[in-house]
Amino acid sequence: MFKGKIIGAVLGGLAGGPLGAAFGIASGHAYDKHSGTQEDFISLICLGIIKAARLDGPISDVKIAEVERIFGEMRLGSEMRKRASVHFKRARQNTETLDYVAERFAQKFSYEQQRKLFFAIIIRMAAAGSAIDAAKRAALQKAARALGVDAEEFAAFMGSSAGRAAAAPGVSALEAAYETLGVSKNATNDEIRRVFRAKCKDLHPDVLRSKGIGNFAMKALEEELCRVKDAYETIRKHRG
User: Residue 1 pLDDT > 80, yes or no?
Assistant: First the structure.
């Protein structure tokens, strides 16, 4: 399951503080001598939002509403919001690809937290209004490579076929199952059962709702729970 409470909050679409906090932490590095400026940061975020929103066609009212939510959750000051609006309007005329924008972001910002925040936001935009299909997923994976981000960490939010439970070429279903649970093939049955139960508890819908997880994240994490259950069943059948 994807780790990192701050970026998880971005993906969950939680209102108010979480995304504001994530944005504050990431953009706080903008004053480091090794990073781009805060102006670069907000400009490239706006570009990424536009490119992700257009992965499946024109920008719809649903996507515009999601942009407004993201901007609201960032808790930008009035001056920063004005600047963001200017960058957003300019971004609509930009003809660069999503992965090229991601590469530009990576060149400007070296901190992992900044890059993951960027990637989390474009996933949210790609999912706004319609599911993340194979074409969107491929574009997001290209962007992840350009950012130097491990797309597998975000697999639960990028559609079921992107999950770790799917065996990669040369990897058996059993090996993939052990990887999904995060256990060694030498683990005892009791150890595997404890890990499985812990994951099921963490991913239980009631537990997630109590944490205020948004609808987008809920659907993705429900898929993750299914993968965990499938992985456990695969291991259980193999061991007899």
Answer: no
